[in-house]
Amino acid sequence: MEGQLLAGRYRLLSLLGQGGAGDVWRAEDVELGRFVAVKMLRRREGDPVGAAARLRSEARAAAQLSHPNVISTYDVGTTADLVFLVMELVGGRDLAQLLRSEGLPAQELVADVAVQAARALDAAHAAGIVHRDVKPGNLLMAADGTLKITDFGIAEAAGMPNMRPNQAGGAVLFGTAAYVAPEQVRGEPATPASDRYSLGCVLYELLAGTPPFTAGTVDEVLRQHLYADPVPLRNVRPDVEPGLGEAVMRLLAKDPTARPATAAALLAALNGAALNGAAGPAPVPAEHTQLLPLPTEPPAGPTSYGVVPEEEGRRRFPVLPVLIALAAVALLGLMIFLYSGGSPEPSAEPASTPTSTVKPSAKPKTPTPSPTPTRSPSPTASKTANPVTDLRTLARLLRETRGRGMKVAHAAARDIDAAADAYAAGDIDKAAEKYRDARKRLAEARDDGRWQPTPQIAALLRKLDGVLRQEN
Fold it and tell me: What's the pTM?
């Protein structure tokens, strides 16, 4: 089929992928001079919905959505025995391909996938559309890190039946067994919560390497969705961040009402545990049991209320009795002098203990240590313990840039991601170099009026400037 011209407009160039529903081709829109993706469906045995009806359903569903995380749909048509859908061409791979070729992604990327996919689903649900087939193969990762959700071929309005009778009188369940929600298995109408459950299965697989439920038969997998609990992620991958692991397990709740209902709710669950590094210990309230310091030595000097210690009182000199005795001696001497009628010969003064004021011995002064000069904080004293999380957050925010400055912001995001990877690997010099490259791009674009940072981006840049610009 290579080289074939569809509807006189779309020339097939190369096969991008094949699946159970059909083939996807890279093509050229010769009228507009742009490259597009062309999806062609074939009729499936026992499927009560024809290929043309499925594609028109997908086109109608996708046409209602205009969101950065949803593949844009351009056209739908038929020619001879072919039914095709023309879509935006995304330069990247789907998550299933990434898992096969690169293994388990970093946890920061999984968290980013979670938020971007949830935002895409928010847009679909706001338009009254339930996807019903969220799986790794339907989530495309563009080269700039933007996630795109595709394949609305079995999407329906919310509340529509999830099963339809087939030609043999039985019923067919729309969806993929490894990612289908329990309520869908029971034949209940698919709801936005069903898409959230499927997203939980995808995120579980990205972290653990396999979906939450696997078995030898489709029937057994469906039974596990109904009755079995998934193995906790911390048992499968002990290093999983608590906030991320808990958010995924909440998406996999059997009760649809227990799942995070929006992207904002999912983001709150992701932030339930600190992904940005541990903070210092929180102060312990006074009424809680805690370690207290031992009391210090009592201060030297008088005790409280001026009470003199007993030992000091016993050391006082007996002044009053001595004065009385001296007065009596003096009076006796005067009387003897008067009765004798002569001058008394000078006599030696009686020996006496010289009176003196006894001062309490002062306690030796404790030498006051000379004040230690305050050291200026070293350049590393104010550094973030690990800036990798801030770098990942900055890259994600830059990838969310739309409109003016999008190209330079996305290019800078790639440099920021490279800086985060280098820092995580211990190559600080390379991390600083990549960060400077990104900073230069953004500064030039800002000065030229091609890009302006959001307050959050500006705050992160200031924070990271204090870390990575000092690393050299």
Answer: 0.55
